[in-house]
């Protein structure tokens, strides 16, 4: 949680010139205020907004990056020359760099730790009134 508080406080410090401690206290006060008055619903909506910003940022990076490289065909060509296009490698060896098996096992394990075993996510799931709301 310290890093979660420190990262935006550091950004605020760089943008506004406030001291680091002043930024930490400011960010902590704002978060405490909107959580206390808005409850968990405010936190869930903040997470929803943050997810949208991240997705739009990723799309912007893909669009701008591929445009600067010369289009998606150029991106594909660079990936192919670097031997990164490897979709259907079913080699069971654990010493092979990337296979279908390592991708599936790694993805499932990573996603379960984030979305099924994280106390923060479990609290959010329990705070929503029905299954459909938690899925949204």
From TrEMBL:
GO cellular component labels: plasma membrane
Keyword Iron-sulfur carried by entry: no
Statement: the UniProt record of this protein carries the keyword Protein transport: no
Membrane topology summary: Multi-pass membrane protein
Highest taxon in the source lineage: Eukaryota
Keywords in alphabetical order: Cell membrane, Ion transport, Membrane, Sodium, Sodium transport, Transmembrane, Transmembrane helix, Transport
Compartments it resides in: Cell membrane
PROSITE patterns the UniProt entry points to: NA_SOLUT_SYMP_3
Gene Ontology MF annotations: symporter activity
Residues spanning the membrane: 20-37, 49-66, 98-117
Signal peptide start and end residues: none
GO BP terms, alphabetized: sodium ion transport
Record-stated family: Belongs to the sodium:solute symporter (SSF) (TC 2.A.21) family.
UniProt-recorded name of the protein: Sodium-dependent multivitamin transporter
Organism: Littorina saxatilis
């Amino acid at each position: 949680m310290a890093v979660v508080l420190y990262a935006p406080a550091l950004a605020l410090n760089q943008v506004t010139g406030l001291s680091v401690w002043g930024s930490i206290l400011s960010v902590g006060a704002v978060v405490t205020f909107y959580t206390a008055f808005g409850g968990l619903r405010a936190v869930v909506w903040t997470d929803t907004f943050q997810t949208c910003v991240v997705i739009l940022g990723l799309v912007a990076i893909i669009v701008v990056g591929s445009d600067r490289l010369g289009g998606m065909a150029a991106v594909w060509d660079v990936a192919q020359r670097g031997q990164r296009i490897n979709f259907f490698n079913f080699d069971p060896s654990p010493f092979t760099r990337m296979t279908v098996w390592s991708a599936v096992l790694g993805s499932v394990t990573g996603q379960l730790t984030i979305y099924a075993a994280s106390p923060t996510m479990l609290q959010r799931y329990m705070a929503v009134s029905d299954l459909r709301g938690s899925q949204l």
